[in-house]
Amino acid sequence: MDCKDVGELLISYLDGELVKEEKETVELHLSACPLCRRELESLSATQNQLRQSFAVAASKAPSPRAWTRLQQRLAAEEQSRIAVFNLAKSKLRSEINVVKGGLVSRQPVWKSALAGALAVALIVGLVLIIPPFIGQPEEVLAAEIAQNDTQVQDLLPEGTVVRVTKIVNPRQGGIFHVLFLIPAESIWGSEDRGEAVTIDALVNVRERKVIGLRAIRSEETPITPLSVAEREKAIEIARADSRVQEILGDGTEICKVIPLPFSLPLDSSLTVKVAGVVLIAPSLDSQAKRAPGLRNQRWTVVIDLDEGKVLRLIEATP
Amino acid sequence: MDLIQQWQSGDSRAFDALFHQYKDMVFRTALLMAGDAYQAEDVLQEAFVKVYKSKDKFEGDESSFRRWLYRITINICIDGRRRKPTLLFSLEEVGEDGFEPVETGSTCAKFEDRDAIWQAMRPLDGKHRLVVILKYFHELPYEEIAQILDIPVGTVKSRLNTAIRTLRRVLVNEEGRG
């Protein structure tokens, strides 16, 4: 073993991490090599300097209140969890029909409630124009209506600060989404640690009531991943569309299926599960050579998975 | 029945005992990584909230609990780095490739004695700094460092070799200038 080989073992030697044979070999070399002995001393001195500078941290301790703070925090979380657990769990599981890992609401209450409300609004609206609340923007009112709704309150964990209250684009006149982002574990307990749940209240401001309610599991965004079945369904729906057939017949291929944000008003329907099937045209060699960064022509077929229909076809020309 | 078993069987005093047994370890690790006592306090809270909530999921004895707690602490510090610019390194730096030495700055003003440590650690990037903390502060064996960081023992050795030689070069230069 030469000086280079021994040199690579010196730190492990100082750290007491060599096996017996290696240690003996290193010591044999050191006994005959003054250069490597100096190297060993130098490395040892550096380690000692490092340990001395760490001694500052070794004298530090957390605040004496750390344990009390932890107890208070755990107690608050536990109380909040217990307070809402049974109620919220039963509501979400039975009424909103939770689908784990995906979008929640596929139940008829959502749409029938909305359809009913719209019908009522239409009739009432023909007879009587309900004045908006003077001096208060409709979105502020929508948030207030949602927050005061008993069903919404039942879903929000008590004692937990609602992280986000957000009004998404009004889909139709007087109808707003009000979103509350809460930790999933406050509803489902520890099984969903780290996830967030968006409680989405659909509010009809003109009628001053919540006309739809659902919960969406997500990290930070209401875009939920598509299952394999949903992807297949989206492709099937897309392929059945005559406009898509026309495009596909031209050598264009289906590239991917993506989930789309539910909250964007794609049209006047109240679809909440939306997929985009992306189609990409074959590349043209001459074009590619001329401009390598040029994207191929592509289309996104926006699909309503609940209704099983194509909502729109978006064409992106390069 | 050991402390971990007592805790998992629902004995709240065991959780109290675990906290007091490991609070310094978590706090000091976070302090060395964050360079900020206030952030280290927050990391301590976060780490034990995670421990508390994972009571039914944790499987292992007290030595694996300690490794797990190191890992939790390191992950919280790394996650915190994404949100707060004051931590010493990011997850990317801890990865195998593509790291750069961390810029020093005046962002850690709360830790009064930070300079000595900061100066010593300054030449090292995140992943080398981490093995140095675990080895020369916590005095952990290579095998345990490898388990905590989920890397081979050979990688621990090579990182320590690089780290100590880098520090020596910097210290020699500084002494030469002094």
How would you describe the overall organization of this protein?
The complex is a heterodimer of chains A (318) and B (178). By secondary structure, chain A is of the alpha+beta class. Chain A has 3 domains: 3-58; 79-218, no CATH class; 228-316, Nuclear Transport Factor 2, Chain: A. Chain A is built from 11 helices and 8 strands. Chain A has helices at residues 3-14, 20-32, 34-58, 66-95, 108-127, 138-148, 150-155, 185-188, 228-240, 242-248, 285-290, and strands at 164-172, 175-183, 196-204, 209-218, 253-259, 274-280, 298-304, 309-316. In chain A, the strands form 2 sheets. Chain A has a 4-stranded antiparallel sheet. In chain A, strand 1 and strand 2 (175-183) form a beta hairpin. In chain A, helix 1 crosses helix 2 (20-32). The longest helix of chain A has 30 residues, at 66-95. Chain A is flat and about 90 Å long. With 178 residues, chain B is mainly alpha-helical. Chain B has one domain: Rna Polymerase Sigma Factor, Chain: A (Orthogonal Bundle), CATH 1.10.1740.10. Chain B contains 9 helices and no strands. Chain B has helices at residues 3-8, 12-34, 37-53, 62-83, 91-94, 114-121, 126-137, 142-149, 153-177. The termini of chain B are far apart. The A-B interface holds A 8, 11-12, 15, 17, 42-43, 45-47, 49-51, 53-54, 56-58, 60-63, 66-67, 69-70, 73-74, 77, 185, 190, 193 and B 16, 19-20, 23-24, 27-28, 31-32, 37, 40-41, 44-45, 48-49, 52-54, 56-57, 113, 116-117, 119-120, 132-133, 135-137, 141-142, 157, 160-161, 164-165, 167-168, 171.
